[in-house]
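Hi R.,

Here's the chain you asked about this morning:
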Amino acid sequence: MEQSRIDEARLAALQVLLHNSRGPFEGLPRTAGWGYPEPYTRDLMISALGLLVSRDAELVDALRRTLVALAANQSPRGHIPSLAHDPEDRGASDTTPLFLFGLALYRKHTGQPEFLDDSAKRALLWMQYQSPDDRTMVAQLPTSDWRDEQWVMGYGLYVNTLTYASLVLHGEGEAATQLRFLMNRLEPSARPQALASAGEHSQVGPGPEGLVVPSQPFYALWSYKVFHSDRFDLLGNSLAILTGVASPERARDLVNWVETECEGLRKAGDLVGELPPCLFPYILPGDADWYPRYERYNQPGEYHNGGLWPFVCAFYVAACVAVGRHDLAVQKLHALTDLVSPWHEDKAVWGFNEWSRAQTGRPSGRDWQTWSAAMYLYAAECVRLGETPFFDEIRARRPQ
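And the predicted structure, written out as tokens:
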């Protein structure tokens, strides 16, 4: 019965994606079925994973059309806009590495290694200039990545894992090795001991802190000089596992840590269901990183402050597969199937909603989200295969 429900959800996800494959803006894909008719770059590039594993010709072509539009609207310096059809909608920190990521996946899937080569080269150059200390680790401004209502500043985990993946996939092995080292480095004073214990080697000199949280298996949300946030970023840490930024041992410990911490959240009444929130511990009024605007948009357990996002949870399902926890991945996939079922705006059998409140599971945002449906397909395929398509190759290139 449970497998039949997963099969039903996969078919529904495919129907949502086909429905969203053409929208009102130059025929480019929609970000959501009823709301968000625009072709948002980050949503569609993240969706590339699901579009490609679907092997549906129309969906693969939807990705191609999006990539072509992004290349056509790329800035003269190589930056990729936030909307595929609008060259003036700029400023996002994750759109350019996501373009490089989605492009590499499309090239591999179609066997076209030179597709949009000039745009790829310009995007790679743009990313070089996003490193303040000129050592590959890229920085960002607050609210410039997928969390448009949350302050992530300086060296963010999520954007740097994407950058690492894009460097590996585009054959920039030396830069990828350097970036992985920097992300895994402790504060400079601990560098020799950390290197010796981890067996790492690098010629990189003194520089900024890495993203390792001392005595913990997970990576910090962000870090810059003496400032940092040790709140847990589910998407960034899942990508650290999937890309091999995290060592196999750290990756296994990280998943175990997530499960233990979530059990504590459930006991405290701060979480329902089996899936992790996108961020925890939640930011509370009075905390140093609470902003007045959060009162309206980012309450604890909501939106980017710990909401349950189906597309993010799908990355966690894939991360469980990557560490060899197949039984746990199956359990999480069943929970994800329950999460994408309720509809919120328009009555439908499957909602594929944007996000749900962590304390109640109540869906919110817009229904029929492209990335919710696409990443469900990807998570289900990972569980079916016992592999993580595309990410397996990235991890295989991980420096030892």
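The radius of gyration is 20 Å.

Let me know if you need anything else.
M.
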